[in-house]
C-alpha cells in the first residue's frame, strides 16, 4: 500500500475518533488501544486495503492439541462469516507451529469511518472469542451464540475507550 494513502486514512480515522494526531513508525503499523487491548492497523497488499488485526497467540506444539485448536479456528470462521467482516488466520512463525490472528480488511476507498470503527469492534470481539475457545479445551464453538453477537448501541451499552 502506498504510504500516503495509509497515512491519510489513519489520520482521517483518528480525526473521526477525536484522538488527535497519530504517531507513525517506519514499520507502517499503528496501534490503537481499545479498552487496554492493542489493535494493529497496517497497510494491506494493495493501495486500497487497510488490515486491522490482533495477535491471539501461538498454536500448541503438541500435534493433537494443535489439531483441536485449528478445528476450533475453522469452526469459528464458519460461524462468523454471516455476522462479521473478520476472519481468523494462522501464519507460520519461524519453525514454530504457527500464530493465530483475528483479522479484518477495510477498503480505503470507502471513507466510511463508522464501518472502520465497526470493523475494529468485530476484530476485538473475534479476538476475545478466540481466546476463550482456545484456552478452554471444553469450550465448544457454538454457532448461534457467536453469529448472533452484535454491537450494543443503546443508551445502556458498554462503551469502548479509544486511546492513540
Automatic annotation (TrEMBL):
<dbReference type="Pfam" id="PF05932">
    <property type="entry name" value="CesT"/>
</dbReference>
<protein>
    <submittedName>
        <fullName>Tir chaperone family protein CesT</fullName>
    </submittedName>
</protein>
<dbReference type="InterPro" id="IPR010261">
    <property type="entry name" value="Tir_chaperone"/>
</dbReference>
<dbReference type="GO" id="GO:0030254">
    <property type="term" value="P:protein secretion by the type III secretion system"/>
</dbReference>
